Fold:
Amino acid sequence: MDVTSSLLIEMHFDEFKQSADEIIRKYDKLLSNNPSDARAYATLVELRKTRNEIALGGSFKKGLNATLSDQYREYYNLKLNGIINKAKADFPDIGLTFENIDTLLEEKSKSIVELIKACKSEIKEASIDKNHIISTAIYRSPEELNGGKLIPSKDVLNLVGEIGNYTFAQSGLLVDNAYLLRKSGKGVCRDKDICIPGDPNLVYSEDGHAMLKDPLYVYLMSTEKFEPVISISLKGDTPAINFAGEWATESEIEPADMTVKEYRDVTEMLDYLQIFSIPDKSIYKQLTQLPYAEKIKQIRILLEKGQIHYINDECNRNRKFDFPNNKQVSLSEKREAQRRIDKDLEEIRQEDGPENYTP
Structure:
């Protein structure tokens, strides 16, 4: 295992991305020949994902108490009903019911399923041809793994709503990979260049460096045992291939098939991301619900109140936002800032509706 301070590892990502983008453009054109089936497929996949999130229940949303779990289930039921009603209106001839989503995906979207399989095959072939390296980052050393192997997690959900036993990995540069700052059960909020780890104690500043509280282990692998996770998104009414860089495998990854690197210093990530640390978990949850522009507004208020750490600012590296930090404010100013946060959040909930709001 290599203990290193540099995240700038050659992963042949740029060469692979260029090829992948060309493949996706090719299949986008093919989708345009059958837009109705592609739109139906995208809607059915969204339904399947929501249904399976509900089915996984507590295992999908770990650590929730009974009250929050009920709210979570109610939110997804509302979302599911909303999607079903929309699907029935858009595609009245497919006979949609809650139980037959998977059957309809096979029967009504067969041509789209085959097209996606072909696209996945070409993307994987390009990744192998370009010697592309993918990564998975966890806070467990090889010695803590079963025989040093990466073993698929049971009953987890991929990005297209399929439940299976998967190990996930990501395409992309390590320095721009927010998954490096995600701890099991904690998550990470990534919105454009803003990155907020769900563990409030994960990242801190020390002598101009961004440091991790616990050592991070990055497992680097080829894509040979993995498959790209590909879905179809709708840009308005136009279907498009969506590959977000996620890879999944149901195979065990042997130690001989991996290179492992250990990190504590992640300062180089500051050149790519604006990283914040929030001690209050409830505030973190609020921010994850907000669109980008609203996040910026609330982060500014939180910094005025001293309730958030702006790691780029504290390390004096790639400081994008002109935020005040550690400003001393009066109690009345703090109360007014909190009132604005509560008011803004309530307005967003009213405008977006329950389908865009997670309790």
Q: What stands out?
A: DSSP finds nine helices and 13 strands in the chain.
